[in-house]
Amino acid sequence: MYPLTESQCGEIIGLYKNKQSVPKISRMLKVHRTTVTHTIDKSQKILKTIVKDNNKKSAEEIKKIFVEKTNNELIFNKIKNYQQSNYQQSRTLPHHVIPVIIDTDGDNDDFFAILYALKSKNLDVRGVTYHGNGWSHAASVQNIVDIIDDIYSGKNIPVILGTDYSLYESDRNPNTLGTPGCTYQKSVPEGAAGGRRDSDLLYGLNRKLRLSKRIWYDAIKDFNITQDFADLIDSTIEATGKKPTIIAMGTATNIAMLLRAFPTYNTKIERIVWMAGALDVAGNVFTVPNNTRAEYNVYLDCVAAQELLDSDLKITLIPLDFTNKTPFNPAFFDKLSTLTSFYGKFAYQLLKMIRATWLGGELEFYNGYFLWDAKAVGFVKNIGVAKVVSNRTLAITCTEDKNYNGQFVASQVLTKADLEIATEPIVSDLVEDSPFFQDFIDVLEY
């Protein structure tokens, strides 16, 4: 590399970005016997090689290696500035396309939402973060990798593995080894009726997926959820020119851990859309009969949930109050049965297995299954939403009492978060023709 003064670097970048002629730039640089392409492009190639060979290192570590190789810190900063400007000019997503990061616990319901998001043209899925303290074990990440690598072929979308325990557990026992021994994880069934085993294997249907060449261990970036999550947010902003929306489909553990480690990253997130909570309807923690008001995603890590409310984030809750107003019905099931695409057929087969094993039988299935997480994706797409209200007067119960934990209650202290709640979906006279259901079918079929 040829070291350049700050003013020369500034002139080079300016001329290069303004598409001035190479001779004009070369004349300015004749003392150094170089050109803009030599200065910028060669430096970019060096930096690209360093990043490729050290993809698990932080930005500061990458910079240190670059400076050691080139003896030129100034050009590193200029390259970064140029790249950021270039991303803004030529790689910014169209206005209607929303970059999203999916945070999931791998429950079978999540896979409908993941498919819906991946196949929606106005969503750009930048990565998936996974945590094993919900309704599946870490190994089910392979199912997510297989689906992503098929739909987003060749893009190597990051899949980041988070913790196997809740903050409620780790704050009390830093040496915890995670599920299934954690206090609240005992409330998630391991066996039948949609428990972890069924989520891990998708009722055995994961054998029908188009398998990725990446095995799950190689597909994940690392086991450092906080740093990798932060890097994913940074790369999303750099590549799209937009802050990501995080669609949360499980506990808030990964997001809370990110904010503990990097509190300023609340400014780098557009908003959190979280399928969670029960406000004025009954909860769904059926394994704790005396807790009638909690919803699993809040209940399984009440510490993380409260920390989310205490953050400076824009948060939209998609509670059971919203999801349960558009019930799954036989007519919609019949519509699904007509789909001819690979993932349309897969979704139908998976729902058939869920219906066949549902506690209480088919009638209870139609009364109790609502495609919860997919409706959070629909909200981000602005499909089928009639009413959203602001409500910052909520808190979450989080004590030692499992019969009381994980409930939203009224609070006189306003949440720090800018909290809004989806309350009313658009429901057609025939429920199966409601905007959400129709869009879900259309997206899976294309």
UniProtKB/TrEMBL annotation:
InterPro entries: Inosine/uridine_hydrolase_dom, Ribo_hydro-like, WH-like_DNA-bd_sf. One of its GO terms (molecular function) is hydrolase activity, hydrolyzing N-glycosyl compounds. Coiled coil: none annotated. This is 4605_t:CDS:1. Pfam families: IU_nuc_hydro. Signal peptide: none annotated. Residues 100-411 form the Inosine/uridine-preferring nucleoside hydrolase domain. Belongs to the IUNH family. Transmembrane segments: none annotated.
